[in-house]
Each structure stands twice: as C-alpha cells, then as structure tokens.
Write a structure and sequence with these properties.
The protein is an alpha+beta fold. Among the domains are: about 1-95, 3-Layer(bba) Sandwich (FAD/NAD(P)-binding domain); about 105-185, no CATH class. It has helices at about 5-20, 40-55, 150-175, 215-225, 230-235, and strands spanning about 1-5, 25, 55-60, 65-70, 75-80, 85, 185-190, 195-200, 205, 210-215, 250, 255-260, 265, 270. A 3-stranded parallel beta sheet has the order 1-2-3, with helices on one face. The chain is globular, with a radius of gyration of 22 Å. The two termini are about 25 Å apart. The structure holds flavin-adenine dinucleotide. Flavin-adenine dinucleotide binds near residues 138 and 139. Flavin-adenine dinucleotide (FAD) binds near residues 149, 151, 199 and 274.
Length: about 280
C-alpha cells in the first residue's frame, strides 16, 4: 500500500507490476491523485485510470491512520470506518524531511526544510561567503514539480554561477575589470513549464504542457525496461559501456537560462528520459 503523489503512484504500480499476486492499494485523502501537483484534472484522472488498469486499487477521499498489528502487520483505519490489515504500508506523504535539516542553519530553510535561494541559486544573503555558495536540485525550495530534469538544469546553472564568481574574483584581483571587457553574468533559473513523465507499471503517462500521452510504447520510449537507469547513466557520462556512434542526442529544450541583467544564455537540453 502506498499513499499520494507521483512517488506513491510509481511505487504502487511498480509493486503490482513486479508482484502481481499482491493486493496493492493506494489510499489518498483528496478527491484526485496527484492533488498537490499543478496539473490539469484530465492528467490526474488519466493517472488514476492507468493505475487501475495496472491492477492497483485506488481509494480516494479517505484519510488513513496506521496502527501496528501483530506479526509485523499494520492495521489501516480509513476515515469511513473501513479497516484493512496490511502486510506492509509505505507512507509516501512525508514532506519536510529534506537532508538539509541539521546540516544547514534552520533560518536558511523554509517550512519544508528546503533551502531558500535567489533565482541565481545563491544561498540566502546572510550566508558567510555567499558568493561561493550555490545550490541545485530537490533541496532548493521552488514552486513546481521536482524532477530530475529540473535538478540537472539547476546543476548547470549553479556550476555556471560558481565559475562566474571565480572569474570575477580573479579579474578583480588581477585588476582586469576594464570597461571594455565582457563582465560575466550570473544565470537564473527559468520558469519551468509544468510537465511530468510518470512510470505506471508497464505504461507511461506524460504531459508536456499541452497534451497528455500514455501507453506501453511510450513507456519503452521514455524509460526503456529499466526505469531509465541506463539512459540516465549515459547522459551523465557515468558508464563506459556507451557505444559512441556520433549520432546526435535526442534533446528537449528544457530551459532558457536568463542572466540577471537580461542577457540570454541557452542551457543545454536534457534528454527526454530525464524530463
Ligand atoms: C520514486 C521516485 C520516482 C521519481 N521519478 C522521477 C521521474 O520519473 N522523472 C523525474 O524527472 N524525476 C523523478 N523523481 C524525482 C527525481 O528523482 C529528483 O527530482 C532528483 O533525483 C533530484 O536530484 P538531486 O540531485 O537534487 O537529489 P537526489 O537525486 O536525491 O540526490 C541527493 C544525493 O545526496 C545524498 N545525500 C543526502 N544527504 C547527504 C549528506 N549529508 N552527505 C552526503 N550525501 C548526502 C543522497 O544520498 C543522494 O544520493 C522521482 C523521485 C522518486 C523518489
């Protein structure tokens, strides 16, 4: 059993897909799955339909409370009085357990334990040596769906901005900040379009900001047969098993990186599998 959101959906479907004999139930207190994501209702409804096609039972508008039971099982009591004795319960509702808690000063974090940054991904202004501290990925507080693609774009921006700060410092130290020399600019995070690619058992559901698509072939196109593992390793250059044939990578234009003073630099695209 699992609860809520994209992670709950993917886990529930994955459990059912790999262990079809198990009764797998997804329980959510709201009227729709993915309720906290800024997605159209038609995408949420499609996600529920696919889950059910994959054999996952979906219980909506019913808050669950979990109690320990005998033999390592759990008793799940639903708000409507239903009781379910479960072999295992997976709670995917948790927010606010960011790994930044306990490492970074609490005043740098928002209520979810996520780091407050500027749009150039710099730490809060009160940070000592602030020009040397940039953040990237899920740890950054931002509105929108947290995705690997977004994390990779942020990584590019943070790396760019660290380089800019080092260059500025170097030029200042060497007295080379002449008027006619191009001054490097900090890049800022773009407004992300609301997009999602959900692996739901043997099917995939995508929404690219304009249209939803779903099905088994799409799953193969997006995630191959390993949930995109090899594709991600290849994109990140973390495997030596890649055959370099010289073909161009299939990229989607994920982001435009706009400098603080209105100069545009276009970030590299991120492969479809990572989006
Ligand atoms: C089940 C699931 C399915 C998902 N599916 C998709 C998907 O299909 N598409 C998509 O785009 N996104 C998906 N995501 C979201 C995506 O995984 C994240 O947005 C992305 O991994 C964020 O990258 P990151 O580098 O910021 O963080 P992470 O990938 O979480 O990496 C952070 C790393 O830091 C390490 N770490 C933490 N604390 C410390 C410490 N104190 N010291 C040293 N190391 C530390 C962690 O162990 C981890 O390896 C999914 C997430 C989950 C959980």
């Amino acid at each position: 059993m699992a609860f809520v959101g994209a992670v709950g959906i993917e886990f529930a479907a994955e459990i059912k897909h790999n262990h079809p004999q198990l009764r797998t139930t997804l329980i959510h207190s709201r009227a729709k799955v993915l309720s906290s994501e800024p997605l159209l209702d038609l995408v949420k409804d499609r996600a529920k339909l696919i889950l059910e096609e994959e054999g996952v039972e979906v219980i909506l508008e019913n808050r669950a409370t979990i109690y320990p039971a005998t033999n390592g099982k759990s008793l799940v009591k639903l708000a409507d009085g239903t009781k379910i004795l479960a072999d295992a319960v997976l709670d995917t509702t948790k927010k606010g357990d960011s790994s930044a808690r306990g490492i970074l000063p609490a005043e740098f974090l928002d209520k979810n334990g996520e780091l407050r940054t500027t749009r150039s991904l710099a730490f809060p202004a009160e940070t000592p040596n602030v020009e040397r501290h940039f953040a990237a990925g899920d740890v950054v507080a931002f509105d929108g769906i947290k995705r690997a693609g977004g994390a990779m774009v942020m990584g590019q921006i943070a790396a760019n901005n660290l380089w800019v700060e080092l260059l500025k410092e170097e030029r200042e130290e060497s007295g080379q900040m002449e008027e006619d020399k191009e001054i490097p600019q900090l890049a800022v995070i773009p407004d992300y379009p609301v997009v999602i690619g959900l692996a739901v058992g043997k099917q995939c559901l995508t929404y690219d900001g304009t249209a939803e698509r779903w099905g088994e072939q799409l799953m193969k196109d997006y995630f191959q047969d390993d949930l995109g593992w090899q594709g991600s390793l290849k994109y990140l250059g973390l495997t030596d098993k890649v055959e370099r044939t010289g073909e161009k990578e299939v990229n989607v234009a994920v982001a435009e990186v706009i400098s603080d003073i209105d100069k545009s630099v276009v970030a590299e695209g991120v492969p479809v599998a990572a989006a």
